TrEMBL record:
The lineage of its organism: Bacteria, Pseudomonadati, Pseudomonadota, Alphaproteobacteria, Rhodospirillales. It comes from Azospirillum oryzae. Keywords: Hydrolase, Plasmid, Signal. InterPro entries: AB_hydrolase_1, AB_hydrolase_fold, Sec-Metab_Biosynth_Hydrolase. This is Alpha/beta hydrolase. GO terms for molecular function: hydrolase activity. Residues 32-245 form the AB hydrolase-1 domain. The keyword Cytoplasm does not apply. Pfam families: Abhydrolase_6 (PF12697). Transmembrane segments: none annotated. It comes from the Bacteria. The keyword Hydrolase applies.
Length: 256
């Protein structure tokens, strides 16, 4: 039979070519894609990006529209499609909702949640936030525009989002925030990538936007590697070295 005469080496090559592509196994992970959260934009990630670039990583930051969860997932997949190799996908806050679904993309080797929501299928951001509210949160800090977009009231911004940043930096963030459609916060999540891919979670222990206990509970449920950091919700701006270090840890782990 021809099958019996097929050389073993060629058989191994044929099987390897036919196997599904595995980003983590095929090449070192040197790409990072970052998804910012709501009431923010990607500019606050500059120092994290600089740390990663200095270590040889190619960094892309998604500037998603925050018009709907589906639109934001699509925007993230658009950036992932441009990656030339496997990538670590990073999400902050609401960005965790986005990467949980977009992380199913074949380019994604690992997920990193930074003070982020880690939903299971069917959960929304609003449902998760209401399950364990922030103790002593200022009522009415989140306001709505006439056309149904949400924003964090600038006078409340520093206390809720960036208490450990210099006042001028917090003020800049408050006035450069991207407003989010209400529907983005109530949309149910799809099948989360953390069920099939390794994940890491940075818990901001002084967070006043997401209850740190909720961050920890979601991370444990997902089986994430947890790293606590004493910082506000804007940990990426307040402690960029710690955030970059966790991303490098994830990249090196899935490169082995």
């Amino acid at each position: 039979m021809l099958w019996c005469k097929f050389p073993a080496a060629l058989l191994g090559l044929a099987l390897s070519l036919a196997a599904p592509w595995s980003p983590a196994a095929s090449a070192p992970v040197k790409s990072v894609v970052i998804v910012h959260g709501a009431f923010a934009d990607g500019s606050g990630w500059r120092r994290v990006s600089d740390f990663l670039t200095a270590k040889g990583f190619a960094v892309s930051i998604v500037q998603q529209p925050l018009t709907s969860l589906g639109d934001d997932v699509a925007a993230t997949r658009r950036v992932l499609s441009l990656q030339t190799g496997p990538a670590v996908l990073v999400g902050h806050s609401y960005g965790g909702m986005v990467i949980s679904e977009a992380g199913n993309d074949s380019h994604v080797a690992a997920l990193v949640y930074v003070a982020a929501f880690q939903p299971d299928k069917g959960e929304s951001l609003a449902k998760l936030a209401e399950s364990k509210p922030v103790s002593g949160a200022e009522p009415g800090a989140v306001k709505a525009t006439a056309d149904g977009y949400l924003y964090l009231d600038p006078p409340a911004f520093a206390g809720a989002f960036a208490a450990d940043l210099p006042a001028a930096d917090a003020t800049f963030l408050a006035h450069s925030q991207v407003f989010a459609a209400k529907d983005a916060f109530t949309a149910p999540a799809g099948e989360p990538a953390w069920k099939s891919k390794p994940s890491w979670a940075l818990v901001a222990t002084a967070d006043r936007s997401i209850n740190p206990e909720l961050e920890l509970e979601m991370a444990h449920r997902a089986g994430s590697h947890v790293r606590p950091v004493e910082a506000s919700h804007a940990v990426y701006a307040a402690k960029p070295e710690a955030v970059a270090a966790l991303i490098v840890e994830a990249a090196e782990a899935v490169s082995q």
